[in-house]
Amino acid sequence: LLFSLRSASNDYLFVVKEASYTRLCSTKDILTVNGQFPGPTIRVFTGDTIFVEVSNEGKENITIHWHGVRQPRYPWSDGPAYITQCPIKPGASFRQKIIFSEEEGTLWWHAHSDWSRATVHGAIIIQPRPETAGYPFPEPNAEVPIILGEWWKQDVTEVRNELLRTGGLPAASDAFTINGQPGDLYPCSSSETFTLTVDEGKTYLLRIINAAMDEMLFFSIANHDLTVVGTDGAYTNPLTTSYITISPGQTLDVLFQANQNPNLYYMASSVYSTAVNLDFINNTTATAVLQYNGNYTPISSPPLPYLPSRNDTNSAFQFIGSLRSLANEDHPIDVPLDITSSIFSTVSLNTLPCENDNNSCEGPNGTRLAASLNNQSFVEPSPIAILEAYYERINGVYGENFPDFPPYLFNFTADDLPTILQIPEQGTEVKVLDYDSAVEINFQGTNLVAGTSHPIHLHGYSFFVVGFGFGNFDEEKDPLNYNLIDPPLRTIVDVPISGWATVRFRASNPGVWFMHCHREEHLTWGMKTVFIVKNGESPQERLLPPPPDVPPC
Q1: Given Cys at both, which of 148, 244, 336, 392 links 438, Cβ 3.0 to 4.6 Å?
Q2: Superfamily of domain 1-133
Q3: Could you read off the pLDDT of 499-524 as tens digits, one per residue?
Q4: Separation of alpha carbons 211 and 154, rounded Å
């Protein structure tokens, strides 16, 4: 997993197929790409265009999403099922065109159909073009993908099916993983623990990806400081820290120096979670080993790093709030100042009446759990994708009435809220944006059902996180504290428990783009919507036509 820093390919073959893997003393078949878990790494230069032939030799439908890749004017290969394409059926294939633009750093790819992304995922490494000045930090000795994930002993499809059947919570995962391995603290795992071998005095670049399905994670290395230099495919002002916080779907580029006495040290990852009433928690710790080269007697029990406690919200968001864009002459940023489209959206867990055979579900008071944005619990269309309906002007597939403001105003973060507020509207409503409009979205978390954090992801765009806070957003006071100078550029914004977060971006990428919570259970429950960005006036501002082999419905 150590990579040279200057090589890339423009063509990849992804064969989706089942493979047998053993973890935690038991063996099961999992869905993979090319038999690998985690899957193969894609390595490109800034501005490249590549082609990935996705061939489905599995038993279920599949789609692949290139997370954080903006795909200018070309959502046809973006991947979310029934949003930009119908799934690739078993036995079929789809040659996906992936267009990189300004992204530089670490992104990732993953399945975007059902819950397949638990095992169908891998890293995307985007290096500076060889003719440029290179990294805005000293060249590391080597770079290493670190993919944080989750493992269930049972088939993850069964976990999803049980969630849908019961209307309750999904079963908690049985382990967290680092590069596919749980590590020494789990049974039957020590012999396969991921080990990173380093030379004393050298610097290493970790490309860290949170591929976990539902959990925000802490990560640290015993006795070693971490210096964050990038987030979600964009550079940051260097931030030195003893630990990082990373939400599902996010990536971080992290430098560390091998500057300790040669020995063995643990890398470790554990959960951050706050929702006591509605979380089945995996409270275990994944480990990997940092091993120095040299002649020494290795310690029998490597030291574990400091990790904040499971419910340490202050530590989690202190790190998140410390991130800043590089924002210098070589890497300028352009934060929209004159907002032309403003959206205030509640982010809520909800309940719906139970509709199973017994009329008794496992949500609160026998209800079925749901989730919403602005009280809209999104229902995906089938058997047609929204992008096809938009491009072909097919009526009746979706509405254009996603609200700019919540239908009910209440004390969003109060502890006790009327249960009548828990019931959302269900539908397929999208938000239409004019081309090049300056957009601000304020996400307001609520304590309906249970307060928790929400990592919200927008396809086709990165956005500036200009502010966040706890409690109810104050439209008079809170904007005075926005960071409009060097806010971090992210593909996912963390909406804190009982709090709010504000993002800004310019809608300069025409097409159909999915927005959703990156906690898989919340996505399944309906915490999602779609932005349709209209064409601009010039040919260079218009949606490109579809490829010839787009999967049929």
Answers
A1: 336
A2: Cupredoxins -  blue copper proteins (2.60.40.420)
A3: 999 999 999 999 999 999 999 999 99
A4: 18
